[in-house]
Description:
Layout: H1 2-14, H2 21-42, H3 44-47, H4 52-89, H5 99-126
Helix pairs in contact: 2-4, 2-5, 4-5
Amino acid sequence: xxxxxxxxxxxxxxxxxxxxxxxxxxxxxxxxxxxxxxxxxxxxxxxxxxxxxxxxxxxxxxxxxxxxxxxxxxxxxxxxxxxxxxxxxxxxxxxxxxxxxxxxxxxxxxxxxxxxxxxxxxxxxxx
Length: 127
């Protein structure tokens, strides 16, 4: 997840890159996948005590919660950093889009978590 954040920062600052919708979707999908992996690895022992449907819902909910916190972070960065960045670099930098963008980001976080769960079940069923 740190790699995704650093890659995004480097691309924006070094290459003057503004992510397209497809690139944003890829980043959020990978972020959701990695967040679900992190949640699963941190709480693996506790998840073993839960029934399968509750385990899946919990991983999805925790991943989406991380996504919501990320969207709050994007909003806060937009409010706090937009002015100083414009004053220093004379360019507008948008950290967050409109409501449709936010909902699409959260949906891709959820699809990333779902992708992790599918991969996890695939490996689990083979073993």
